[in-house]
Description:
- The chain starts with a strand and ends in an 8-residue tail after the last strand.
- The protein has helices spanning 17-31, 108-121, 140-150, 174-179, 192-202, 231-243, 258-264, 269-307, 311-318, 325-330, 340-350, 358-366, 372-390, 399-406, 416-421, 423-426, and strands at residues 2-11, 43-46, 53-62, 67-77, 82-92, 124-125, 128-129, 135-137, 159-163, 185-189, 212-215, 223-225, 354-356, 410-411, 427-430, 433-436, 440-443, 446-453, 458-466.
- Strand 6 and strand 7 form a beta hairpin.
- It has four domains: 1-122, Alpha-D-Glucose-1,6-Bisphosphate, Chain A, domain 4 (2-Layer Sandwich), CATH 3.30.530; 124-243, 3-Layer(aba) Sandwich (Glutaredoxin), CATH 3.40.30.10; 258-306; 311-466, no CATH class.
- Helix 1 packs antiparallel against helix 2 (108-121), helix 3 (140-150) packs parallel to helix 5 (192-202) and helix 11 (340-350) packs parallel to helix 13 (372-390).
- The chain has a five-stranded antiparallel β-sheet. It has a five-stranded mixed β-sheet with strand order 8-10-9-11-12.
- The chain is elongated.
- By secondary structure, it is an alpha+beta fold.
Amino acid sequence: MITTYGFSIATANKDVRQAAIDAVFRWLEDVHPLEDRTNSTPVNIRHSPNDPIFRVDVLEQDSRQAAARGTTATLIVSKNELYFDLRRTLRPTKAALLPRRTIDKPEPRLNKLILEIVKLFRARDAEKIIDAEITIANDQLGGQSLAAFADAPGRRLPIVIEVIVGKPAAVTRDETARQLVGIAHVAHVSSHVAEEAFNNLYGARIISSSWITVVWPRGAEVENFHQQDDDELVKQLIAASVASLPILKTPPPKSQTKQDFEQSQKTPVSQIAEITSARDYWQEEYQLLYENLVDSDRKTAEIVEAREIDRDKLVAILTSPRADAAAVSNAQNPNYLARVDEAVKFASITFKNLIFHPRSISSSAETELMNGRRILNALFYLDQITANLKNGMVLKNNFLHECSQQISNFVPTIGEVAINNFAQDYAIEWKGENVLAKPHIRCGDARIHFYHDTKTNEIVIAYIGRHLRDKSTN
Length: 474
């Protein structure tokens, strides 16, 4: 079975559950009316007032090949939220080798259901409502706001940004935004002022009218698309959404109660026959999925615990054996280490796997930024990865890749303009040589640049301060 389309969304407002169920049933009646259903188009429904899981699964035969097209809509009520999941699948029906069709754009009637669900849920991504509207940035404030959203650490969906200045028509249109609803945000930059403001605040020239930019979340490298239509762009984003779909929490249905049985007596005979014939199959599938979910939840918890540094973890760092008495007494103070220079001084004492070049101390002292704990957060992860580098758990050639996987807003190098025109900004003297500190971490307005001495596997923190000159510098 191959998943060819998928998206998921969650809301804390569980009151919209019935409205979402009604929307799925309206779509089902529109696409597959009860009177037109045959054995070649089975419809399986899991629906009970006391069941936290609602599910509709439709299977359509594909006359062009020995396969069937499946559409599965699932609503799950958990302790804290209501979760909606929609998937399209290709399921072989005969022992034959078939071409792999990796992506399906949602057909209009299915897209209508998706838009209705998204409107009902009113879910937020980094405080922005998820919808099918194109964000327009047409002035300096609009460009800066879009750049801040692109750099938001809590964002989980990618942003598609097109500079439409001077173009006869935009490549990404309202239809693009509708097809990508719940999968990506779409934004248009409509003035040179907004374009310049975005690039200046972001710290690099990543948007231009010469290409369409996809800003991925979690610090992943931005991606540029140069094609004249949005087909490949939409397909790649849908493919990314499919790849990120979780295993559904769908345990077996509870045993039927007397009330459920009495209600089933009022159900049309044809629907009872469909449900009964599929019962054994679905119960077995739900059990397997539930077992997989338990394992998935455990692994996810381990990853989150390993990669998230919250207040309690910071307190643990501050109160570690390495910390002095002042750190211990100030650990609970939210203003402690807010200043960048204070955070860097503390890190230079605490994180023993990193080497702090004198310039990193002096440059941090020159800045007046107040995001010291964010700096400390990034240095904490870099220290952990460096420890793994030293003990052989991370290979030398894989160090930068490991940083990109574990550190938000990590960038492995600098641009050619920075190297050719502003190399002195990135240079430090190290063991009698001038070297460039190219890998860096974006921490809001601040940057952490470091140098990897591949001969000795030492990581040298070279600079901590406001971002240095590059191609975005006038």
